[in-house]
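User: Hi! I have a protein structure encoded as tokens and I'd like to know what sequence might fold into it. I'm fairly new to this, so please keep things simple.
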């Protein structure tokens, strides 16, 4: 299966484990699909957890200079 893991430094990893006797084309495809689904669905929440203050600073900097906020719109609820 696939699970999130955290190391001693607080870095977040997505770890996949599969017994050797279960390695088939179909199972690898399923596992990679799970990795894609979990990493896509968790990306913004994980960014929020680790970079809230940086996102707020970037937002304020862009607003003060009239810069585009397009790629920060997903984080508007943080400011």
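Assistant: Happy to help. Inverse folding works backwards from shape to sequence: for each of the 79 positions I chose a residue that suits the local structure. Here it is:
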């Amino acid at each position: 299966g696939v699970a999130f893991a955290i190391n001693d430094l607080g870095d977040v990893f997505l770890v996949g484990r599969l017994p050797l006797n279960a390695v088939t084309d179909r199972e690898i495809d399923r596992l990679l699909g799970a990795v894609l689904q979990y990493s896509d669905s968790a990306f913004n929440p994980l960014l929020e957890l680790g970079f809230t203050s940086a996102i707020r600073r970037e937002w304020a900097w862009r607003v003060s200079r009239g810069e585009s906020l397009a790629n920060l719109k997903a984080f508007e609820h943080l400011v």
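A useful reference point when you look it over: Residues 2-78 form one domain. Feel free to ask if any position seems puzzling.
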